[in-house]
Amino acid sequence: MADGARRIEARNLTRSTVLGASLDVAESFGARFMGLMGRAALPPGEGLWLRPASSIHMLFMRFPIDAVFLARPDPDGGRRVVLVRPALRPWTGVVWWARGADGCLELPAGTAAASGTSIGDVVLLPELPELPELEPGSA
Q1: What residue ranges define each of the domains in the chain, with the CATH number in brackets?
Q2: Which of 37, 55, 56, 68 could tie 105 with a disulfide, CB 3.0–4.6 Å?
Q3: CB 136 within 8 A of CB 96
Q4: Could you report the per-residue pLDDT of 58-98, keeping only the tens digit for each?
């Protein structure tokens, strides 16, 4: 598990769906670097919240994932979806820079389509401490 025992839930408020009921939180450099590497699979309802993150890679991954990039929180706490990359393939899927992204939800492949999640939707995560803003291309 990333960054200790902290798990959160992500809800798509626009679609009234749960994107992930049990997401690990990866906020340290080491946790973001390791991400989901080493796992054999990602069960439904699980995933990873990477923050800060405006780009990801799929090196050393053994299964496809959906990547949902979210903006910084609005005053009400909701985060707008700025990019959805469904079914990123292991070893070859890369998202170099998601403009306006503050973090990325890594979810089982098919989650975005099943929930109807698309750009502009509002996702609610539990309140987390603020982190410094990302520079373009950094992760």
Answers
A1: 7-124 (2.60.120.1140)
A2: 68
A3: no
A4: 989 999 999 999 999 999 999 999 999 999 999 987 888 99
Q: Report whether 68 contacts 104 (CB < 8 A).
A: yes
For residue 38, give the 3-state DSSP assignment: coil
On whether the CB atoms of residues 19 and 115 are closer than 8 A, the answer is yes
List pLDDT tens digits, range 20-61: 999 999 988 889 888 898 899 999 999 999 999 999 989 899
Print burial letters for 119-128: b (CB count within 10 Å at least 16), e (below 16): eebbbbbeee
**What's the predicted TM-score (pTM) here?**
0.87
- Separation CA 123–CA 68 (nearest Å): 10
d(CA 83, CA 118): 8
- Residue 33 structure tokens: 């670097």
Under DSSP, is residue 67 helix (H, G, I), strand (E, B) or coil?
A: strand
